[in-house]
Specification:
The protein is mainly α. It folds into two domains: 253 residues, Fido-like domain (Fic-like fold); 73 residues, Orthogonal Bundle (Arc Repressor Mutant, subunit A). The chain is built from 16 helices and three strands. It has a three-stranded antiparallel beta sheet. A hairpin with a 2-residue loop joins strand 2 and strand 3. Helix 3 packs across helix 5 and helix 11 runs antiparallel to helix 12. The longest helix is centred in the C-terminal third of the chain and has 35 residues. The protein is globular and about 70 Å long.
Amino acid sequence: MNKILAQKFPPDLSSIYDEELANQLAETQGAIGSLKQIPRLLTNAALLMRPILSKEAESSSQLEGTQASIDDVFKIGVIGQTDEERHEAFEIYNYEKAMLEGIEILKKYNLNNFLIRSIHKTLMTGTRGKNKNPGEFRKKPVWIGQSGTGKGKARYVPPEPIHVAQLMEELEKFILSPSSTNPLIVAGVIHHHFEAIHPFEDGNGRVGRLLITLFLIKKGLLEMPILYPSGYFERHKRLYMSALSKVDKKQNWRAWLLFFLKGLEEQAKISLNLSIKIDELFKKSRAMIETETAGLGLIRALEATFSRPYITAPILSRMTHIPRPTCVRYLEKLAEKKIINDKGIQMKQRVYSNDKLRAILNKI
């Protein structure tokens, strides 16, 4: 029998608090609090959020073996890709889409199993997991280990499918119940317990990491998805898996929560620094065109190059509803100012690239 079925949930964490954990919690809370100020500090926080969300999507997907990069996502529909490259890129694209969908659901509903199933369906549609019942709790056994590993040698065997619905109901109740426990601690418990249940046939890791940000937004610790937690988990993948496993094997919540909180702190600082760099690039670029007669239309074109670092006149026209011939002139002007770069003809359209933004994102 899987240990999760015999263990009390939610766990009693009263014995794990010591000076080290308290100090780490305070440091993490301060770093997350700085991120909450971003909408009031940056020129266009909603616009500049997208590149950071793209980085989170990249890291979370690469943790699961996706080979595509953020640049491959930017190329979708603009620069030619093989079927394999496009399918891999869509796994990252779907992660972004699932996050934004989850935020929209949160505006009307709670963070519940409906939301969890909805973002899973979005995440898996059209990707390698499209035939593994997207949006439905699993009805077959799964196990975790290296590719080709049998159940008997698996690193972890989640509960049998007959238990999944009840376990997810218990997790939903925990998420929705008022609690005096710090929300950052609760987020760590939610992430572990979701991964331990492994309610879907595929995509559990990515959904579990989506839930971290969505929960913090729901609790008011974040206003938008500008935290980039998967970057830390990806850089320390073995420690990430080990810390999760320590809870499964020994109920060592302290080790897991220390790792989790340290990861959030470090990534909050990285996200803040990344936000400032992107904002500085945007302001510098905007200053170069503010005196142009095109005015507001040209600034809208500039903004579009931060959402779509690879862009064409037809794409810009669809994004802004500006006539295509005008979009051609705007992109030529941005290239003339060396704000973007002309990449030549691709897929029968002239492609431009915001190379300076891409360079910032690729350095992380």
